[in-house]
Amino acid sequence: LLYHYAGGVTYGALKRWREAEEFFEICVTAPAQTPASIQLEALKKLTLVQLILYGKVSWLHLSFQPLMRTQ
């Protein structure tokens, strides 16, 4: 999780938005019984990256766990 979160932050700092989006998506969608705090932080950053890229948040292609949707 930390690898993909840090990678997303790094790509974001370099303004490589598509790569940042991919790394944050991997972090957010990693299987777990309960979401880790780093996954919630990645979700916040993923939302920002998608707003920069598309002008809206694209939730349809993400397969969130039920617990992640309620947070």
Key attributes of the depicted protein:
single chain; mainly alpha; 4 helices
Counting DSSP H or I runs of 4 or more residues, the number of helices is 4
Structural class: mainly alpha
Helix content: 55-70%
User: What would the principal axes of the Cα set say about the shape?
Assistant: globular
The count of DSSP E runs of length 2 or more, i.e. the number of strands, is 0
Distance between the termini: 18 Å
Which consecutive residue ranges, at least 5 long each, have pLDDT under 50?
none
Mean pLDDT: 87
Order of helices and strands: HHHH
Q: Radius of gyration, rounded? A: 11 Å
Largest sheet: none
Strand fraction: under 5%
Question: What does the model show?
Answer:
The protein is mostly helical and 71 residues long. The protein has four helices and no strands. It has helices spanning 2-13, 17-28, 37-54, 66-70. Helix 1 runs antiparallel to helix 2 and helix 1 packs parallel to helix 3 (37-54). The longest helix has 18 residues, at 37-54. The radius of gyration is 11 Å and the shape is globular. The model has no long low-confidence stretch (mean pLDDT 87).
Describe the structure in brief.
With 71 residues, the chain is an all-alpha fold. The chain has helices at residues 2-13, 17-28, 37-54, 66-70. The chain starts with a helix and ends with a helix.
Question: Mind sketching the topology for me?
Answer:
Blueprint: H1 2-13, H2 17-28, H3 37-54, H4 66-70
Helix pairs in contact: 1-2, 1-3, 2-3
